[in-house]
Write a structure and sequence with these properties.
about 290 residues; alpha/beta; eight-stranded mixed β-sheet; two-stranded antiparallel sheet; 11 helices; LysR_HTH_N; transcription regulation; DNA-binding transcription factor activity
């Protein structure tokens, strides 16, 4: 093996396309393919698998790319230190989170990174399907979501429960609600998650149990949007308090009730693989 083999592999691993990479590096596609094949033969394992027109990293390929990232980052760091006197480049960790997640919870998860100088992080908000697709393709290092996933034969997920947040009835100040059976709750206006969300199912069951007749003025599957609606619409909302912690602190909103046995769970999802990003390991250790 030499560094030309590794360099060609590294560029293909980043793009996922052989033809585009060959054009970028000004080499023929056959020469590029041959160099990668020699590297795979030397290592004794495939580094890519083909999915349609795209090349996707195998487990061994992901491990090789992680080492290549560090090797070429160190090479660039050497040039910068000698020519420019700059300090070493930060390590990058890529964190994906479901677009429905509480931004306050995501900020809490990365709070240690915010305080550090040597770790660079990228946050990617996306739909759940895209989130797991990018995790499976090694484009992010960890996925944050509010739904648990289970691994299958083709994809081995590791799902860790980070936090279980109680869900409360939140609204503007002014009501005199003391319990679930309070008549003042019977014909209130509400902003709620849509019907396909577990939190909404729990609310519907409680509505039937306590004979509420909710006037549902808006639905949103995005916690950030529910936060804004709760703050600005004057309607009540059912959301975890972490979502509106700033509004609760400054008095814009108040908690009227905590829903019994209703929780919003927050998970970190990673792939089962021989190498885990060291920064992800440290972040998850905070939730033991």
């Amino acid at each position: 093996m030499n560094y030309k083999h590794l360099n060609y592999f590294w560029h293909v691993a980043k793009s996922g396309h052989l033809t585009q990479t060959a054009q970028k590096l000004h080499v023929s596609q056959s020469a590029l393919s041959s160099q990668i094949k020699q590297l795979e033969d030397w290592l004794g394992t495939p580094l890519f698998e083909r999915r349609g027109r795209q090349l996707v990293l195998t487990q061994a390929g992901y491990l090789a790319k992680q080492h290549a990232d560090r090797i070429f980052a160190e090479g660039e760091n050497l040039v910068q230190q000698i020519k420019q006197g700059s300090t070493e480049q930060p390590i990058t960790v890529r964190i994906g989170h479901a677009s429905t997640m509480s931004r306050n919870f995501v900020e809490t998860f990365i709070s240690d990174l915010v305080q550090q100088q040597k770790t660079h992080y990228r946050l990617h908000s996306m739909a759940p399907d895209q989130l797991f697709n990018e995790l499976g393709n090694h484009q992010i290092d960890v996925a944050l979501t509010n739904s648990q996933v289970r691994g299958g034969d083709k994809q081995l997920w590791q799902s860790r429960l980070l936090a279980r947040q109680p869900v409360s009835v939140i609204g503007r100040p002014g009501l005199s609600v003391n319990n679930m059976a309070d008549p003042e709750l019977r014909e209130q206006s509400w902003v709620l998650p849509p019907e396909n969300v577990a939190l909404r199912s729990a609310f519907d069951m409680l509505s039937a149990e306590y004979d509420w007749r909710p006037n549902i003025v808006a639905e949103a599957d995005d916690m950030a949007m529910l936060r804004l609606l709760a703050r600005d619409s004057g309607a009540l909302a059912v959301i975890p308090e972490v979502v509106v912690k700033d509004e609760l602190r400054n008095g814009q909103l108040v908690r009227y009730l905590q829903l019994p046995n209703v929780f919003e769970d927050f998970y970190a999802i990673t792939l089962k693989r021989p190498f885990q990003h060291p920064t992800v390991i440290k972040l998850l250790q905070e939730y033991h």
